[in-house]
Amino acid sequence: MSSLFKGVRPYGEDPVDIRVEGEVITEIGTGLEPGEAQVYERDGLVALPGFVDLHTHLREPGREDTETIESGSAAAALGGYTAVFAMANTDPVADNDLVVEHVHRRGQAVGLVDVQPIGAVTVGLRGERLAELGAMARSSAGVRVFSDDGHCVADPLVMRRALEYSKGLGAVIAQHAEEPRLTVGAQAHEGANAARLGLAGWPAAAEEVILARDCLLAGQLGARLHACHVTTEGGADVLRWAKARGVEVSGEVTPHHLLLTDERLAGYDPVNKVNPPLREGSDVRALREALAEGVLDCVATDHAPHAVQDKDCEWSGARPGMLGLQTALSVVVETMVRTGLLDWRGVARVMSERPAEIGGLAGHGRPIAVGEPANLVLLDESAEWTVRASELASIAHNSPYDGMRLPGTVVTTVLRGTVTADEGKLA
Amino acid sequence: MTHLLSAEHLGRDDAVAILDTAEELKRTLLHREVRKLPTLRGRTVVTMFYENSTRTRVSFEIAGKWMSADVINVSASGSSVSKGESLRDTAATLAAAGADCVIVRHPASGAPQRIAGWLDGVSVINAGDGMHEHPTQALLDAATLRERLGGLEGRRVLIVGDVLHSRVARSNVHLLRTLGAEVTLVAPPTMLPDGMDRWLDEAEVPVSYDLDAELPGTDAVMMLRVQAERLGGGGDSSAGFFPSTREYSISYGLSEARARLLPEHAVILHPGPMLRGMEIASSVADAQNSVITEQVRNGVHVRMAVLYHLLASEETK
Amino acid sequence: MTTRREGVTPAEEPEGQRVLLAEADVARTIARMAHQVIEKTAPEEGAPPVLLGIPSRGAPLARRLAGRIAEFSGQTVDTGIVDVTLYRDDLRLRPNRPLEPTTLPEDGIDGRLVVLVDDVLYSGRTIRAALDALRDHGRPKAIQLAVLVDRGHREVPIRADYVGKNVPTSRAEDIAVLLTETDGTDGVVLRPAREEGDQG
Q: Which end of chain A is more exposed for a tag (fewer CB within 10 A), N or C?
């Protein structure tokens, strides 16, 4: 099987034709002859390596009423992703080789994106006893990222052990940085809006103290640390400082923290409730700059589907989280490309290359070059679209962007030579 | 006006209209044998209380009944609420059953706003939501102050205590300033919200940690209730907002000695229920210049006025 | 000259308006009504009647009428105001309105002869509301009604005991009663209806 993508612009540069045969890019040039290949006329579209999401909640097993590996894979493919890392906070928790192998196999069976399971750091995400990290690493799922996301590995000694132990597995610990004692009952970013709305505050320092502690631990132990969803100016500063000291730390930022602020909380609509919470304008500016600068390595969606009944209620009763897979590119175009903070090489870096490196996914985030795996996304930078939450591929509809007009659309996604999504539909 | 959800979004004209109506209702009902007006005959008012509050619920119930509305009380226990029905379903059920107005008390900030967004053609009154607002309490405080001080323009009001957790404080900060009063907050730093200075302009709403320094120049002092679980010294392992009830009382309690620092015309308010001997000395609570009982009395008239403004006119439906 | 400039006179009618009572006519009409009240209530034993005006223009009318009665009979006449807003049956048809103060004689109205005073009698619903309000304020011996203008079109079985002027009107017309206390001038004007009026 072969395909010819005509007129595309790798990294937004000069237009070329890309020939894909089997799973590999075999020819790049102008005026390529179609021959046997299926031809895709894609004049002027930007071609990037397929996106990789380091932080996705697929909810299977356990909450298949909100998302399944199949529906989540569809959302990912339509969003331009060729690989997603599935978070461990499922039910049962992915804290053993059986669950991670199941998730991995289900992802392969669906075949729309590579679903790479993340294993839990501690048994049951309880933060007490290390899960069988080695068994998960050596399983057929080949887990290389461990995280208790949703919960912070708060106990410093447990975190030290996890960091130390993961060294031997070539793995990284992805920390949900939230000092639990500082966020008891927290409902919103602690600041002027929470004060006005009477919502218990989630202080920026609760994130920053854990980041600082873990950077120091990782530095001393020579272990690798990844910071999930960095949301504060101070958090970015901590990472900048740690990187300057040579700590092997990486950080991600979510699309929603790049675009939305706690001003959105005024109507108490829990579609805006997320953990960590939406912060302030000054944080948003700092996060964008840190991403452009490379202090934050990548954009990760923290795609978190929730059932209607878990959002259509009073604020404090609602579950935190937002959909993100199908809107991530558009938010990045809006906040990083249109503002001139990132060019398309930069977008490739933060949405594909760095997350693949951090997560140890060899076949993804590769250059667009002959001989490389044909994992590609073709996107229209000039198109705009209006987000309709109910039309997204996820089973749940909790998108904060519902009704919002955003720039940039994914036209075609290619996973190892196979078109998975084309013109807004699964192929 | 369709709903009364917050004092923050209550305009001056509407606030004054409600207070004027309350004043007139009070005068009209004074010395009457039959304290019942036919105004809301055939209207159905439901109180939906997810927190216990006998005083507020009873006040609303009396207000509704004196206006001849049919008042039905739903409490969190003994109804489908306790069976885990969602707030939205409960509210929709009450609306479908014919409620013209729901009065909501809920531990979650913003719950009344959510209900107002879900229901069509039903007025929603916020009877206290989490740490957010309690607008009818602020209205009855304003009514009491207007009555006793002859007006609010330029008057200086101290709000003392746990501002962080207090919906009464939030509503009063907004309403009293809307009506032209100057509000100063007095509290230990742990009981003021972080981000305070960006929420309220410090120049407009000064903050003080020193009650003694503020009392002499004030026209009214409003003591907030201090919930015991907020204070340290108990068996709870969580860090308290204050070392002990004793220290709180010493630093921020309105003792007899402190009350003497007030100008002669100044009045003392408390939204109740009071912890006598803790945030306020018993003798101070019962003193001549204490208007605590008057607040309760005015509560009924203010809530009648709110019901009148929301339910009597054409704008409701 | 002064009175001519301030009062309403036929010569000054704006387009579409017809002056029914000019300033001097209003004073004469009130005087005549005062005589009628004295005549009709004189046989009553005990205290003189209490005149209760219905806001807004019934209130000053009641005071004026009481003044003339006192002048002609030598007896002091109690007056008061009874606001009927809370007793209206049409609240839901109209925008919100503020309440007017209700003031009654200190000794109340129990056992007294009450004369309700209003400017215009139209549907009769305001008077019905006033009767309900009075019931909540006490138990008068009897209740009578005095109006400056009766324009017909009754919707309830109510009639006035004292009428300043009967004016046949159509529903497409408004009667405007102007009083110095509320409008800066005295007069009664008939004009095309602009919107649903407040006349009862």
A: N
